[in-house]
Write a structure and sequence with these properties.
This protein is an alpha+beta fold. Helices cover about 35% and strands about 30% of the residues. The strands form two sheets. An eight-stranded antiparallel sheet has the order 2-1-11-10-8-7-6-5. It has a three-stranded antiparallel sheet with strand order 3-4-9.
């Protein structure tokens, strides 16, 4: 399953880094931004906590502002608008070669895996790369217990759905072998139009990341 998780890491990390690493700076500056005559794209992140009295966090960032803020942040793996990939965490998977192969191939469902621990689907359609993963990490542990416990453990699953335009993938990979170019990806994304990027649903939170022309999230 390391192969599939590597694909998921690239898709998810790129979007998540572009929206969260600069969130504090972006929110501080957004109050000072005047209204713009032209329509611009916004990145939205909404995190809903499922616990009792859980809070909902919304982050709304203009893509144009993100392009300016990101290069000014140099911390840990993020520098000059690029994020470095730790190949050790990807188990020596050549993600660039994999994505190049997908990009140059026809539309289709490339990977479908169904197991007790995970369901994985990797597909390309209409210029988008899709990665859907359902992780049932506690299944085997629960299966060794009584039926009630097993049922409870089986319900603890995480679902991740990633939908990334292939042109954005190209822009991400334009930086170099071990880096993702977030600024280049944002420029392409801003010209692409409205689209959902990431949805995560687990025991604790529901996370959604998307892009549209609204300056506030739902």
């Amino acid at each position: 399953m390391n192969y599939f998780r590597g694909c998921l890491i690239v898709s998810f990390a790129a979007v998540w880094a572009a929206t969260t690493l600069f969130a504090g700076t972006a929110l501080a500056q957004s109050a000072a931004e005047g209204t713009s005559a032209k329509s611009e794209q916004w990145i939205h992140v909404r995190v809903e906590n499922k616990q009792d009295h859980g809070e909902t966090v919304r982050v709304n960032v203009p893509v144009e502002m993100a392009e300016k803020v990101l290069p000014a942040i140099n911390k840990d793996r993020l520098h000059d608008g690029k994020v470095r990939i730790d190949s050790a965490h990807l188990n020596d998977v050549d993600l660039r070669a994999i994505l190049d192969a997908v990009r140059s191939s026809k539309d289709g469902e490339y990977v479908t895996v169904e197991s007790r621990e995970n369901n994985v689907r990797v597909a390309k359609k209409g210029g988008y790369l899709y990665v859907h993963v359902t992780d049932r990490g506690d299944w085997e542990k629960g299966a060794s217990k009584d039926a009630a416990s097993a049922g409870k453990a089986a319900s603890h699953e995480s679902k991740v759905e990633v939908k990334v335009p292939m042109k954005v993938v190209d822009a991400l990979l334009s930086a170099g072998k071990d880096e993702l170019d977030l600024v280049a990806a944002l420029r392409v994304l801003s010209a692409h139009g409205d689209t959902d990027l990431v949805t995560v649903n687990d025991d604790e939170n529901i996370v959604r990341v998307w892009v549209d022309s609204k300056n506030a999230s739902d």
